[in-house]
Each structure stands twice: as C-alpha cells, then as structure tokens.
C-alpha cells in the first residue's frame, strides 16, 4: 500500500487521471441534484 501512495504522488499521469475522474464524478452528481431539484420545483400546468 505504501508503494501505491508513493507512485500516486510522484506520477503526474496517475495523479491527473484520478483528479480529472474526481472532477467528472462531482459534476455528474451536481447535475443529477440540479435536475431532480428542478423537476420537483416545476409547476404542473392545468
């Protein structure tokens, strides 16, 4: 496990890959939350 953390902080490709993946996951969660919030607040036409 110690080797993984050493490689993670010394290898920029691995570091950026996990960083960009984290940003994508955060954006996906935000848009799911935003969509559900807008659907719940929408007015139903009569």
From TrEMBL:
Alphabetized UniProt keyword annotations: Membrane, Transmembrane, Transmembrane helix
Domain of life: Bacteria
Segments crossing the lipid bilayer: 12-36
Protein name per Swiss-Prot or TrEMBL: DUF3149 domain-containing protein
Record organism: Pseudoalteromonas viridis
């Amino acid at each position: 496990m110690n080797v993984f953390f050493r490689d993670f902080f010394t290898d920029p490709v691995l570091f950026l890959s996990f960083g960009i993946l984290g940003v994508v996951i955060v954006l996906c969660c935000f848009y799911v939350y935003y969509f559900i919030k807008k659907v719940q607040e929408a007015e139903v036409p009569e």
